[in-house]
Amino acid sequence: MEERVTETGLLRGAALAVACAIMLSACSGDLVPRGRVASAPKPPPPVRAPAQPAMETRQCFAKLQSQAVAFTPLPDRNFGGGCSAVNSVKLIDIGVPTTGIGAITCNLAANFAAWAKFGVQPAARVIFGAEIEKIETFGTYNCRPIAGSGKLSEHAHSNAIDVSAFVLSDGRRISIQKDWDGDRQTRQFLKIVHASACKRFNTVLSPDYNAAHRDHFHFDMGGRGGFCR
Predict the structure, then answer these.
(1) Is 60 inside a domain boundary?
(2) Sorting pLDDT into bands at 50, 70 and 90, what band is 47?
(3) 151 in a structural domain
(4) Mean predicted confidence (pLDDT) in 63-79
(5) DSSP string, the chain
(6) Does residue 166 sit within a domain?
(7) Is residue 100 domain-resident?
(8) Average pLDDT for residues 110-118, to the nearest whole number?
(9) Angle at which helices 106-115 and 55-66 pack, to 10 degrees?
(10) What is the CATH number of the domain that holds 182?
């Protein structure tokens, strides 16, 4: 009887040992399934610093600052179809509230701000005895060709601006469309600011150029300069 008990105990002990061995083999070892290799998480891609603006652009930024113009540099963008906004800024304050200005090349912005401050404002004071409270525009960037042409406009490069009207502190609104051939005083004012623009922009177009410009002045910094109509 004692021998049977001993034998039974031995058998039970052996079975228990085998079970434990199986369990240990399942629980021990790598937690990663066979055939896979544990890898560290990928590091984030390096952050590239923005490209330093070209010397000419930095000089233009300094020029705007010297004119007390508030602006924000904009990243260069390519919109496709040959249209782009390169070396452009967003004008925040040029000293005279101006509507409709989007991305505008820095060089054009500097000349426009100087024209408003040293050409338009003094002319209004002398001729009307009033201040310019607002300059209205049709905008700057527009991905389109020159009217009646397959060539891209300078607007397609943020390098042109169209001025449509001036609002005075006495409440008067001088419109290019209505007042280009208006009374003597308004004609004088518009002729003076037009002549001032011809000294600052490479291309200046007025209602005298063609019907497409009957309601605005077009200013841009394209071409070789000296085209004033």
Answers:
(1) no
(2) very low
(3) yes
(4) 96
(5) -HHHHHHHHHHHHHHHHHHHHHHHHHHSS-SSPTT----PPPPPPPPPPPPPPPHHHHHHHHHHHHTT-EEEE---EEEETTEEE-SEEEEEE-SS-B-S--SEEHHHHHHHHHHIIIIIHHHHHHHHSS-EEEEEEEES----BPTTSSSBPGGGGT-EEEEEEEEETTS-EEEHHHHTTS-HHHHHHHHHHHHHHHTT-SEEE-TTT-GGGTT-EEEE--SSS-EE-
(6) yes
(7) yes
(8) 97
(9) 20
(10) 3.30.1380
| pLDDT at residue 53 in the model | 66
Domain that includes residue 220, residue range: 77-228
Count of structural domains within the chain = 1
Write out the two tokens for 63.
């020029």
Report the chain's terminal Cα–Cα distance, integer Å: 127
Please state the pTM of the whole predicted model. Answer: 0.76
